Amino acid sequence: MSTTTEAAVLRDTSRVQAKEPGAGRDMFRLGRWAISIGLIVYTVFLLFPFYWTINTSLKPSPEALAQPPTLLPKEFTTDAYSWLTSATPSNALIDSLVVTVGSTALAVLFGSMAGYAFSRWPRPTGGEEAAFFLLSTRIFPPVAVALPIYFAFDRFRLLDTYTGLILLYLSFGIPLATWLMRSFFDEVPKSFEEAAYLDGYGRLETFFKVTLPLVAPGIVATAILTALFSWNEFLFALIIGGDHVKTYPAIIPTLATGFQVDWAHITALSVAAMVPPVLAVIFLRNHLVRGMSLGAVK
Amino acid sequence: MDNSAERDASGVAAAQETGRVELRGVTKTYPNGFEAVKGVSLELEPGELMVFLGPSGCGKTTTLRMIAGLEDVTGGEILLDGRQIQDTPPESRNVSMVFQDHALYPNMTVRANIAFPLKARRRKPRPSKEDIDARVVERAQMLGIENLLDRRVSQLSGGQRQRVALARALVRDPIAFLMDEAFASLDAVLRREFWTEFKRFQRRIGRLMIHVTHDQEEAMMMADRIAVFSQGEIVQVGVPDEIFERPASRYVAKFVGSPPMNILALTTAGEDGRMTANGAGATVPLHAVDGVQPGQEIGLGVRPQRIRWGRARGADEVELPARVTLVESVGTHKVLLCDLGDADEGGVREVRIIIHDDTVPEEGESGHISFRLAHALLIEGPEPEARARPWPVRQTAAA
Q1: Which residues in A lie closer than 8 A to residue B103 (C-beta atoms)?
Q2: How many CA atoms lie less than 13 Å away from B146 in the CB half-sphere?
Q3: What is the pLDDT of residue A194?
Q4: Which of A267, B143, B239, B295 has an alpha carbon 20 to 30 Å from B120's alpha carbon atom?
């Protein structure tokens, strides 16, 4: 008799055990489905503008304005992309590339050195206040200084030059790079550098051979953020740029005239402009994720 | 032979540098006025293992960092083989250091980490790539980590990191090795292993080594000599036994030893010739010495190892009535916690005794504790800096 009760108890518990995790697993599955669906919807929402840009760029101009809009080009054409090889858009993309690479490289170089100083010698560099003052240049609206900058650049003959645009973008890029790099350097323990001093490296050697490699992910993240700004900047590209130096954002408004908006060309140029940042993010995504999470050292 | 071969391998001229380091009145005052080190003077012999011992904030690490050149010296001199080095930058001092966090570069392999000091060295001639490789492998074998050479630092356990850090410090042939709480991150068992192992390396390499710790047991186990720090000053320097048996002050007596020294609060009475110290339910004979007047509060220090449970066996022993309140077993021995005399009288009433016998009194049992006065210390006052010295025994009474 006792054995039968035991068996019954065993059976009961086994049933309970079987049921409980099963129910839990169902809930878990349901939750995962809900999250997946939510993420799919969000992804569609994010990707739609890209799809629509590419879609429009492949339509002939009349179809781009057709009502109702067509989800896929009825009359497929790559005319707009052929136009990209003509002088105006191709020069604009080259100008954008020159200005972006130039301003990013310099911003990261100077920003690293300044950020290092802020991180390691907070007292002589003015500490938190000075660092914040540097960042404050990014708080006020750039339009507020557009006019003075125009006249100043005119006086120094910097209008319509690579130097002018690069200098201007540095004034935005260096504070950002300094601020970001400072936080990356803060994560490198001082002992890492002290060990290098004792082993025979001087200050500069230690900085370039020990510290900088340690913050490599941070440099990548900083470079991408700085480059994105320079690449997409519109207002000053329009004001400072001219006939010789005109980056692609300054070209786009010229395609929308009082008579017509040339959607096919605008979108084709946009697609071309998307390529470098997308490639950069794809190739550097590992560094970028580590850099963004500020886990430069761990 | 072994030594000179090692020196030749890394291209160090053996003749000029023996590694005699001398500190002369070294001070460190921070810009905010805080005096971290208040005039430390110490002579360090080549080949000795010196331990700086003290609680956190006592200036031991700052002193070490000043020897390394990582902190500016604000006063006094540091001499290396008679040459002043306090203004020499760290990269030119040829000392190596193991940091508390080990300072291993996470973006490099173990091999690259160990090779780093050889690649960074200033001294000419720089070793060739083959020499570096050979030396790295040799040091890795010495520390039993040759199978880890191609791993990343992040893949290592705490003990393995410790070994890599030591290999890195030992790979070149500096005049001195400095270690800043280097074993602090290890668990107790591993730490003990390293104490022994490191001491063996140090003997083999025969170079001056300065180790900083707050762990008195670690200091006792490792040191050839110990410098005890307190509030920016060295309060005593000596071999471990000396520090243990003859602490120079109440502070050292309390800091070194586990369980700590028992210090009974007594009051002196009588006149010059025939003085006694009273309290804790007993009267202890005291030979008159300088610095002790009748009616003065003094301390009687005696190590738990030196006290017996039982009555005095001779005239040179002192016995005190006591009651056992707690018996702790540590395996190798037992620790008795006893209450002394009248609980109302105030002062230190609790005494710890270490007993190795099998016959141990029960908790709550009353009886006597006794110890030889030759094993006791006279501590000349209640303050930490109060001088400690052997208990002055009255010759006539002992005879």
Answers
A1: 189, 191-192, 194-195
A2: 10
A3: 92
A4: B143
Q: How far apart are alpha carbons A112 and A119 in whole angstroms?
A: 10
Instruction: Give the sheet arrangement for strand B176-180, strand by strand.
Output: B95-98, B176-180, B208-213, B49-53, B225-230, B233-238
| A8 or A277, greater pLDDT | A277
Query: Going edge to edge, which strands form the sheet with B75-80?
Result: B35-44, B21-29, B75-80, B83-84
- Structural contact between residues A168 and A149, judged by C-beta atoms closer than 8 angstroms: yes
Cβ-defined contact of A198 to B89 (cutoff 8 Å): no
Give the separation between CA B262 and CA B301, rounded to whole angstroms.
Answer: 5
User: Which residues in A have their CB inside 8 Å of a CB on B?
Assistant: 189, 191-192, 194-202, 205, 209-210, 213-214, 216, 297-298
- Nearest chain B residue to A189 by CA: give it: B103
ipTM of the complex: 0.79
User: B161 — contact with chain A (CB < 8 Å)?
Assistant: no
pLDDT of residue A116: 92
Query: What is d(CA A7, CA A22) in angstroms, rounded to the nearest whole number?
Result: 22
Mind giving me the DSSP string for A269-289?
HHHHHHHHHHHHHHHTHHHHH
Alpha helices in A200-259 (DSSP H): 203-206, 212-214, 216-232, 235-240, 248-251
Residue B65: the pLDDT is 93
Give me the residues of B, 114-153, that contact A with CB < 8 A.
116-117, 120-123
Task: Give how far B235 is from chain A: nearest CA, Å.
Answer: 29
Structural element, H or E, at residue B44: strand B35-44
The stretch B40-67 carries a mean pLDDT of 92
Using an 8 Å CB-CB cutoff, list chain B residues near A191. Answer: 99-101, 103
Chain A residues in contact with B116 by the CB 8 A cut-off are: 196, 199
pTM over 0.80: no
In this structure, what token pair is assigned to residue B18? Answer: 């023996």
